[in-house]
Specification:
Elements lengths: L5 E6 L6 H13 L2 E7 L1 H7 L6 H14 L6 E6 L14 E4 L4 H13 L6 E4 L13 H5 L20 E2 L5 H5 L4 E4 L5 H10 L8 E4 L1 H9 L6 E4 L2 E2 L2 E2 L13 E7 L3 E2 L1 H12 L4 E7 L4 H8 L5 E6 L3 E6 L2 H11 L3 E2 L2
Parallel strand pairs: 1-2, 1-4, 2-3, 4-5, 8-9, 8-15, 9-14, 12-14
Antiparallel strand pairs: 6-13, 6-17, 7-16, 10-11, 15-16
Helix pairs in contact: 9-10, 10-11
């Protein structure tokens, strides 16, 4: 590449994904150096409170650049206003964008022309599409729909059939899937209070699985965003289930899910429950033991899921990429029911 060219590219770059990679590679292919102006935490929080901290977003880009031998050609900077240095940098030669930010780049060039500065070459990189044909985006990743490569965690076809748990998973699924908060079985509030203390105020939805968990929360005057019950505990009918005060749940959904299965009915019902803005009580005819697998696969990143560990306490697990990957691994072992 003859001479030295400097491309400026700005953005939030949250949950660094394949689309981000394509944008930076496009800029690097046309320029000798690329400056990534990463939106500050203050600006990012205005956009979405779930955006990760600046240092974490920067680290992902640094690691990606290092893995691809691009560290010497790519630098990171903090963007604290709408356009950063693009309107005034005399040494800049190009600016990178995607189709929806092209107009902002055109506006920057108008200002540069008025100030007798070199017009920037606009490097426009098309969005990378997910497997479903729609663009990969940080918003969709945070919403829990897709991974960073654009694959759905739970595809539409898989939502439509039942799946059976194989016996090989029995031992693994009996172990706590998350952090165990211990407490006496006769006073479930002790373990639940411990679990709740670990849930940050800005977390996404609180999902409670199991009659004892839901009942305990209600008695603590805490209504979970989603409560999932089946009238059972330890796979036996639980008489106190009939006394659950349902008045705090504006929405009631029902579905069928026999033991050892993850039915289409359960999947679609949980998807509907997650879409509600007000608390939902999901009443399962059968068993809800396996419901956390589907909840985590469908839920936004940052959801808190609690369920009971018989005789030991309450398990708390946050929906994260790692959690989704683990649930996906488990579901891949399930067999499809005719």
């Amino acid at each position: 590449m003859e001479g030295s060219s400097v491309c400026l590219v700005g953005g939030t770059f949250d949950r660094f994904h394949s689309g981000h990679e394509a944008l930076l590679l496009g800029c690097l292919a046309a320029s000798s150096k690329v400056e990534v102006w990463l939106v500050s935490d203050l600006m990012a929080q205005i956009k979405a409170r779930e955006v990760r901290r600046w240092d974490l977003r920067a680290l992902e880009i640094h690691e990606w650049a290092a893995d691809h031998g691009l560290s010497e050609r790519l630098t990171l900077h903090s963007l604290v206003d709408r356009v950063g240095p693009a309107e005034t940098r005399p040494d800049a030669t190009a600016i990178g964008c995607t189709p929806e930010t092209r107009s902002a780049c055109d506006a920057i060039n108008v200002v540069r022309s008025e100030n007798d500065l070199q017009i920037l070459d606009i490097i426009e990189v098309e969005h990378l599409l997910a497997a479903d044909g729609t663009p990969i985006s940080s918003t969709r990743i945070r919403a829990g729909e897709i991974d960073r490569e654009g694959q759905r965690w739970l595809g539409p076809a898989e939502m439509l059939y039942d799946q059976k748990m194989p016996a090989v998973l029995d031992d693994e699924l009996k172990q706590p899937f998350g952090t165990l908060h211990e407490g006496p079985e006769k006073d479930s509030a002790v373990a639940m209070k411990s679990a709740l203390a670990a849930v940050p105020e800005n977390s996404q939805k609180l999902v409670a699985v199991g009659d004892v968990c839901v009942q305990t929360l209600v008695e603590l005057d805490i209504i979970p965003d989603i409560g999932i019950v089946d009238g059972m505990t330890k796979r036996e009918p639980w008489a106190p289930a009939a006394d659950l005060d349902r008045s705090g749940f504006p929405n009631l959904l029902t579905c069928s899910n026999p033991p050892g299965l993850l039915t289409s009915d359960l999947k679609t019902t949980l998807k509907t429950a997650l879409s509600h803005d007000e608390p939902v009580l999901v009443v399962v005819e059968g068993e809800e033991d396996l419901a956390p697998i589907i909840v985590h696969l469908l839920a936004p990143l940052g959801c808190a899921v609690v369920y009971g560990q018989p005789g030991r306490g309450v398990v708390l697990r946050f929906t994260s990429t790692e959690t989704k990957e683990n649930c996906r691994r488990l579901l891949d072992v399930f067999t499809r029911e005719a």
